[in-house]
């Protein structure tokens, strides 16, 4: 957002640095009054400046934030609204976002896949006694143990030490004491734990972990994964009775007891949300720490096309350039650690994508900060909410879809203001440039330009409340400074054609061609200039036929109408007389209506040609 605003600001500054000196020197040489030429040049600079930009941007963002709050989307940082609308890739964790976030223990089995209560007992002791941040898996184990009447056993054990979980080891251990016996209970990801096991428990007997046994174990785990279960291994180890500080080195020579199978079913709304996001031009990529088989199963059930699943270990030795190409083509990444998630977000950004990341865990904090827009939920851990730009009050992609559309609507109204203001002001400069060369007086006094500019700015205060065409909301929208500059060059000079027509009418038809009659000339151009600038609001706000195929919102219609009536009235008022304007004859107004109708028609035709030629919305 900041980069986009800055890029457009510098485009306008470059135009100003070129046009203002030219007008200053032309007026100085042709009129001979360099002081007046200087002040006229300054007024042109003010006229070129979209001074309402901060107000319009802030009002649009604030209104967008209020609208999003009604749709259960809380905006922490206002500029994230436009980023959300520009997002074309959403990276999301699987658990809780695509699934129901109601993890339950579906199975507790031995290495052969048979029910084994000892597995649940050891897992419960581990989850109950750990003091780190307990995950949803720990809560599910404790709850299942309560329903299975396993609880109470924890009173027989005294906790001695703990080896906390980390995302590199992907496991955690507690050391417990029962009488004089000490036992280390470790649970974690199957692949990581198997490498540290030397024995298995089979039907109450200890057996060495041979390659054949390991193959059978992997088949059991794969079958559980295929059923959509997330599998956690449970291991034990007898420890010496001597006191010492336990560390990850003690997680060796473990005995594999069995596995826990967790089920977290896909959300019913997730599949339809995926379709809506895809229809809105947002590609969803799943970045999860879960097993690849489970990730594929869940994503396939939701209708995502999963050609391949890339696991974290496959990307460590890949360059950023290669990973960026791979990330664009891949939908699901599994078994990722936090840094790998953040790296994928970063390489996607390097390809020019606006990337959002949605997550709620500790392991998502880095990615939330790295993304163009970080999205979390109100039930997330504190560090995730702190790192996010947007908080969803409902953990649903459907809610996010509403936020994306509101972000595009907000951006549309901002860019609408910039383009209509820049093009209109640029057209006025062309008009002034030509008139300065052949008129014996200034076409409009500096005070007239400033009053005209003020009224035009007032008419644009209603833009944040304007509607946006549905077609505009269908695809992500980004800042494009080149588009603004090109639009100024093609659309701006159209108004100059009719400004010159007004010059001709005032100079020849109404004979306002001497210094004594300059007030009449200036009054005629003042009204035509203000009305054409206000009319451009309706011409440029839509690519359709204004007033017929697309009508502005009521606030826009009311405010622009009031400004146009006030603009016509000023030359007839005492205020107008005090600034050098005078009443116009009634014969002027048929000419005015004809000029404005021709201006509206030509602007619409050029607008349609512009859209076809450059394939871009206004």
Number of helices: 21
Unreliable segments of 5+ consecutive residues? none
Q: State the major sheet.
A: 8 strands, mixed
User: Strand percentage, roughly?
Assistant: 5-15%
Mean pLDDT: 87
Radius of gyration: 34 Å
| Strand arrangement, major sheet | 1-16-15-14-2-11-13-12
Distance between the termini: 19 Å
Shape field:
rod-shaped
* Secondary structure category: alpha/beta
What percentage of residues falls in helices of 4 or more residues? Answer: 40-55%
| Oligomer state of the chains in this structure | single chain
Number of strand elements: 16
Explain this structure.
The structure is a single chain. With 618 residues, the protein is α/β, with parallel strands linked by helices. It has 21 helices and 16 strands. The chain has helices at residues 2-31, 34-48, 53-70, 80-86, 117-129, 136-147, 190-194, 211-226, 270-279, 292-301, 320-329, 338-350, 365-370, 382-387, 397-438, 446-459, 481-509, 518-540, 554-569, 574-578, 588-614; strands spanning 73-75, 89-92, 104-109, 158-166, 171-178, 181-189, 197-202, 205-208, 230-239, 254-263, 283-287, 309-311, 332-334, 355-358, 373-377, 390-392. Strand 12 (309-311), helix 11 (320-329) and strand 13 form a beta-alpha-beta unit. Helix 1 (2-31) packs parallel to helix 17 (481-509) and helix 2 (34-48) packs parallel to helix 16.
């Amino acid at each position: 957002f900041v980069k986009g605003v800055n890029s457009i600001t510098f485009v306008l500054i470059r135009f100003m640095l070129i046009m203002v000196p030219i007008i200053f020197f032309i007026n100085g040489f042709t009129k001979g009054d360099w002081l007046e030429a200087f002040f006229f040049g300054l007024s042109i600079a003010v006229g070129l400046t979209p001074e309402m930009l901060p107000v319009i941007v802030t009002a649009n963002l604030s209104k967008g934030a209020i609208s999003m709050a009604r749709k259960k989307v809380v905006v922490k940082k206002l500029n994230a609204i436009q980023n959300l609308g520009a997002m074309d890739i959403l990276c999301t964790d699987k658990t809780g976002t695509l699934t129901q976030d109601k993890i339950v223990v579906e199975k507790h089995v031995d290495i052969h896949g048979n029910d084994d209560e000892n597995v649940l007992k050891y897992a419960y002791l581990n989850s109950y006694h750990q003091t780190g941040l307990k995950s949803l898996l720990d809560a599910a184990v404790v709850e299942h143990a309560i329903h299975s009447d396993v609880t109470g056993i924890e009173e027989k054990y005294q906790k001695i030490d703990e080896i906390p979980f980390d995302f590199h080891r992907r496991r955690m251990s507690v050391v417990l004491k029962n009488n004089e016996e000490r036992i280390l209970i470790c649970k974690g990801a199957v692949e990581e734990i198997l490498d540290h096991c030397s024995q298995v428990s089979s039907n109450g007997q200890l057996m060495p972990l041979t390659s054949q046994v390991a193959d059978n174990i992997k088949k059991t785990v794969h079958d559980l994964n295929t059923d959509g279960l997330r599998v956690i291994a449970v291991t034990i180890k007898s420890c010496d009775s001597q006191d010492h500080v336990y560390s990850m080195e003690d997680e060796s020579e473990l005995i594999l007891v069995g596995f826990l199978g967790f089920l977290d079913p896909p959300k019913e709304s997730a599949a339809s949300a995926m379709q809506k996001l895809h229809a809105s031009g947002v590609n969803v990529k799943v970045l999860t720490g879960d097993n690849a088989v489970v990730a594929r199963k869940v994503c396939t059930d939701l209708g995502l096309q999963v050609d391949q699943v890339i696991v974290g270990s496959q990307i460590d030795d890949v360059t950023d350039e290669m990973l960026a190409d791979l990330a664009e083509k891949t939908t699901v990444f599994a078994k990722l650690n936090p840094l790998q998630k953040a790296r994928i977000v970063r390489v996607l950004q390097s390809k020019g994508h606006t990337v959002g990341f949605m997550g709620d865990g500790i392991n998502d904090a880095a990615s939330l900060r790295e993304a163009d827009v970080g999205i979390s939920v109100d039930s997330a851990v504190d560090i995730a909410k702190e790192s996010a730009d947007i908080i969803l009050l409902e953990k649903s992609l459907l809610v996010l879809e509403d936020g994306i559309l509101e972000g595009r609507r907000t951006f549309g109204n901002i860019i609408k203001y910039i383009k209509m203001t820049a093009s209109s002001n640029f057209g006025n400069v062309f008009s002034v440039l030509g008139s300065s060369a052949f008129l014996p007086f200034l076409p409009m006094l500096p005070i007239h330009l400033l009053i005209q500019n003020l009224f035009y700015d007032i008419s644009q205060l209603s833009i944040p409340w304007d509607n946006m065409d549905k077609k505009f909301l269908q695809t992500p929208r980004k800042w494009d400074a080149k588009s603004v500059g090109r639009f100024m060059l093609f659309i701006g000079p159209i108004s100059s054609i009719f400004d010159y027509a007004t010059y001709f009418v005032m100079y020849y038809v109404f004979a306002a061609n001497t210094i004594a009659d300059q007030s009449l000339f200036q009054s005629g151009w003042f009204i035509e200039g203000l009305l054409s600038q206000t009319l451009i609001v309706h011409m440029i706000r839509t690519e359709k036929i204004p007033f017929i195929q697309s009508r502005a919102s009521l606030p826009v219609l009311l405010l622009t109408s009031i400004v146009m009536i006030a603009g016509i009235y000023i030359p007839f008022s005492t205020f107008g007389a005090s600034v050098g304007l005078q009443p116009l004859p009634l014969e002027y107004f048929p000419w005015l209506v004809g000029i404005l109708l021709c201006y509206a028609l030509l602007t619409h035709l050029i607008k349609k040609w512009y859209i076809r030629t450059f394939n871009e919305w206004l």
